[in-house]
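At this stage, I put together one protein's amino acid sequence and its backbone structure tokens, which the following lines show:
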Amino acid sequence: MTLVNTEEKVIYCLPGTMCDERLWQFIEKVLVGITLKHVPLPQEESIEAIVESLSASLPTSPFFLLGFSMGGYVASAFTLKYPDRVAKLMVVSNTAQGLQESEIAQRKLALNWVAKKGYKGIPPKKAMSMLAQRNRQHEYLIELIKEMDASLGEKVLIQQLASSLDRPDILCDLLNLSIPLCFCLGEEDSLISAQSRRSLEECKSATQAGKRVEVYVASHCGHMVTLEQPLWLCQKIKVFFGWLEG
């Protein structure tokens, strides 16, 4: 394998719900010479408003964009609205589709509970459920999820849950763009249904996206791909963004 020469190696990164810049810490250690620019999700009342806020801070000339989980959906929505500003898009732990009905109901229950009882942080069982079965024994991963959640707090949780309830399915529209796309998913991600995975493959075939759209699935990995499989993800990042040839 040989490195591809580029003048600037920068990726703008949007985090997921209740995640901060620590989300990237493991892959940053491996991506030597590549800059990951963490972009916090704006605290707005809807996905559309979040995208509009980002439009004022992200580059106007084509740039590389990576989004994780909720940030993956936001990155997809941004790319769909401003396709001339995104050179390549990588979506991690998301499929640019709407939330499952069960997930919407769960989020509404959470919002009601927090409104009545307040928020005391993510429960350990919830943090564990975001990891693959074999990774649930790693206390440092669970603590990291809990620490990011605690740093952002109740106000951000309410804003992020409420603003992301209304998520239109934008997958096929996204795949119809001429922009290179890459989806990286965890094999044991409980937040992405088997139907969502099938829909991703079906839309890819229906739009005849072909080699322009890549889909990869990491084994022994849940929702937290950046933390659970950093070496695997780094290899995908280098190849997709053109900094490593295989």
About this structure: The first strand starts at residue 10 and ends at 14.
